[in-house]
Amino acid sequence: MHYAYRYRLHPTEAQRETLNFHRDTCRQLYNHALTEFEQIPQSAGTLTQRVRQVRDQLPDLKDWWDDLTELYSTVAQAAVMRIEDAIEALSELKTKGYDVGSLNWKSPREYRSFTYVQKGFEFDKKNGQTVLSLKTLADIPLSYHREIPDDLTVKEVSIKQERTGEWDASFAVDDKEEPAKPENPARCVGIDVGILKYAHDTDGCAVGSLDLQHEQERLKREQRSLSRKQHGSNNWEKQRLKVAKRHQKVRRKRHDFLHKLSNYYATEYDMVAVEDLDVKPMLESTGNSQNTASAAWDTFTTLLEYKCKREGTHFVEVDPAGTTKQCASCGVGSDKPLWVREHSCPACGFEMDRDANAAINILFRGFEKLGLGQSEETTPVETALPLFTSSDGADVVDGKRVVETGSPTLKEAATAAE
Ligand SMILES: [Zn+2]
User: Fold this and answer.
1) Integer distance in angstroms from the first to the last C-alpha of the chain?
2) What pLDDT, in 10s, does the model give residues 132-154?
3) CB-based contacts of 296, cutoff 8 Å, min separation 6
4) Which run of H or of E encompasses 113?
5) 390 CA from centroid of ligand 1 (Å)
6) What pLDDT does 374 receive?
7) Buried b (16+ CB within 10 A) or exposed e, 229-250
């Protein structure tokens, strides 16, 4: 498993120019290398061998191409080797049946990043400010909002200009060994991911959906304004930037929310059970809301799974069939349409919030799947019951608060409900 740490760069005006110069020199080098590459017959070797053949011409190129001497060695090499990735991506499309031509020269708009491989970069402090020190380029201030753990090795750093004009640095790291999962998980939770509420768990914590309506309306307004401008004009370009920034805001807010929520569960528990959404029929909603909801569920469980791996937490996906219908107390199934928010068992009389009941069923199925007997302490029906007696929704956490404060709010809410 490998993943990336990303940071926002805050280059000065002069540094922006240098960044752009490096990026565009890489682009020209890429285009030149592509032409050279196409001269080499396929019989000359494997794809990697042929691209390397072009890469090995770099020292000679520098004799007449002055700008190249400004680039750090691995940056120039990576720009040439990018041809390999591009061709692999192209042939993958071909095998999928797409009608693709050959590789084209890249325009400035299409070539947005360059990469330092293994060396040439380090974090440093300048006047109390953390900077990313890039060889032959500059010391660029950045928001160092989370530390890269010492035991991780940074393989490469990609410097990229977003479509909003901002610059990011993305550190690809090799993951440490995955920690072992506890044999007898003590803190276990079942989570029901829903439509009306975002998630409901067996510890009495319900998280409201993230309200993005305001952001989405503003995005639509800017998009309408863009459609009225003459394509390619100065005003159009200005407006395009505004739209890109709005898009980014919505994306960031949603991502931040899902990151914090999944992080909370992965770090607070030894075992997390959710429904296997690949096989869950999405009958409970229609149209667009269905797509949005299922996309968000998917992102949430994907993040959750990967964070659980990192934390050594059991991640269990269970059969979703009938989790809402089944009674968590006696196991008897009873039909209930979506608008019935309370579970009330006709067989045993057990009453509970619909999603809380589902969450308990999910946890039980998780225990079964892990082959764990249900011990006395982990009888969720007993522990969870008092938590749901209030029907005024006092123990529901607003999705917005998760974004603003992160997991502590969730913790407080969970303890406050006890
Ligand atoms: Zn029952």
Assistant:
1) 37
2) 999 999 999 998 887 887 777 88
3) 254, 258
4) strand 113-117
5) 20
6) 53
7) eeeeeeebeebbebbbbbbeee
CA of 374 to the centre of ligand 1 (A): 18
Q: Is residue 160 over pLDDT 80? A: yes
Q: Give the pLDDT confidence of 299-317 residue by residue, as tens digits.
A: 888 889 988 988 899 999 9
* 86, 216: one domain: no
Q: Compute, in angstroms, the gap from residue 343 CA to the centroid of ligand 1.
A: 9
CB 39 within 8 A of CB 83: no
Rounded-to-integer distance, Cα 327 and Cα 324, Å? 8
Q: Is the pLDDT of residue 410 over 60?
A: no
Q: Which residue would you say has higher pLDDT here, 262 or 384?
A: 262
Expressed as residue numbers, the domain containing 346 is 188-416
Ligand 1 centroid to Cα of residue 329, in Å, is: 5
Query: How far, in Å, from the CA of 282 to the mean position of ligand 1?
Result: 25
Task: Give 208 Cα–ligand 1 centroid separation in angstroms.
Answer: 27
Residue 182 lies in a domain: no
Q: How far is CA 236 from the centre of its chain?
A: 30
What is the average pLDDT score of the chain?
A: 82
Any domain includes 183: no
**166 and 193 both lie in a single domain:** no
pLDDT above 60: residue 398: no
**Spacing, Cα 323 to ligand 1 middle (Å):** 13
Ligand 1 center from residue 287 Cα (angstroms): 33
159 and 286 housed in the same domain: no
State in Å: Cα 348 to ligand 1 middle.
4
Span from the CA of 327 to the centroid of ligand 1 (angstroms): 5
The strand order across the sheet containing 314-318 reads 314-318, 271-275, 188-193, 197-201, 206-208, 396-397
Question: Above 50 in pLDDT, residue 125?
Answer: yes
Q: Under the phi-then-psi rule, with left for phi > 0, alpha for psi from -120 to 50, and beta for the rest, what region is 385?
A: alpha
Structure tokens at 378: 């982990």
How many independent structural domains does the chain possess?
2
Cα-to-centroid distance, 272 and ligand 1 (Å): 24
**C-alpha of residue 325 to centroid of ligand 1, in Å:** 10
CA of 204 to the centre of ligand 1 (A): 20
How far is ligand 1, taken at its centre, from the CA of residue 361, in Å? 12
Q: How far is the CA of 235 from the centre of ligand 1 (A)?
A: 64
Does residue 245 lie in a domain region? yes
Ligand 1 centre distance from Cα of residue 353 (Å): 13
